[in-house]
Amino acid sequence: MRIILFGPPGAGKGTQAKKLSEVFGIPHIATGDILREEVARGTELGKLAKSYMDRGELVPDDIIIRIIEERLKREDCRNGFILDGFPRTMAQAEALDDLLRRLNIKLDAVINLEVSDDEVVRRLSYRRICKKCGKIYHLMFDPPKEDNICDMCGGELYQRDDDKEEVIRNRLEVYRKQTLPLLKYYEEKGLLININGERSIDEVFNDIIRVLESKR
User: Fold this and answer.
1) Nearest-10 Cα torsion for 57, 58, 61, 62
2) Strand partners, 110
3) What is the pTM of this model?
4) Spatial distance between the Cα atoms of 137 and 74, rounded to a whole number of angstroms
């Protein structure tokens, strides 16, 4: 299975990608992760990407697509992959199409997890993280036993700046502007699958599997 995964912040992309990766035996490729990996490995592309990151600039599309090309050529991608966080723009989508054509790879599906803005705010604004061990809590779904105290290590819990409602809504607006043209693009190619992401993790996952199995 060769899949692109879309969804707003807090939609559960990482959770679903991990489960899909286990079921199909294919890697979950998050662009942020592979960028950091290239930088950590000190590759030529990693050094190039780092030069932009150190200046606080976005890594140019041509470097991102070269890094993705190197990743897709690895043996573990032979039976498929899950792309998460790429493409983000039409230019990236077109560059990805060119890359996949060169590698003789055909996408099977583009999965879009649909979650309302209010639900995203509810999920993210109640998130708290331990300053010491990094354990993540949710004040509604998985609260600590004591207010603002980590069950694991006793560390203080805090809210990330980008988990505050105003910031979340700004992130959602940016996501919408970037992503809507992409969804239309993949819909016209007959690849887009919209999934209701506001249900339980297992319900969403079972729905994704059902649709993907019908495409095999």
Assistant:
1) 30
2) 4, 192
3) 0.86
4) 35
What residues are labeled active site? 13, 88, 127, 160, 171
Question: How far apart, in whole angstroms, are the C-alpha atoms of residue 200 and residue 152?
Answer: 25
Q: Which residues pair with 196 in a beta bridge?
A: 114
Q: Give the separation between CA 85 and CA 67, rounded to whole angstroms.
A: 13
Write phi, then psi, for 176 (nearest 5 degrees): -60, -45
Who contacts 208 (Cβ-Cβ below 8 Å, separation ≥6)? 16, 20, 111, 193, 195
Question: pLDDT tens track of the chain, all 216 residues?
Answer: 999 999 998 899 989 999 999 999 999 999 888 988 988 999 999 999 989 888 878 789 999 999 999 999 999 999 999 999 899 889 999 999 999 999 999 999 999 999 999 999 999 999 999 999 999 999 988 999 999 999 999 999 999 988 999 999 998 998 888 888 999 999 999 999 999 999 999 999 999 999 998 877
Which CATH code, of 1.10.10.10, 1.10.3080.10, 3.40.50.300, 3.30.70.920, is assigned to 2-27+74-214?
A: 3.40.50.300
- The residue extents of the domains of the chain are 2-27+74-214
φ/ψ (deg, to 5) at 197: -95, 10
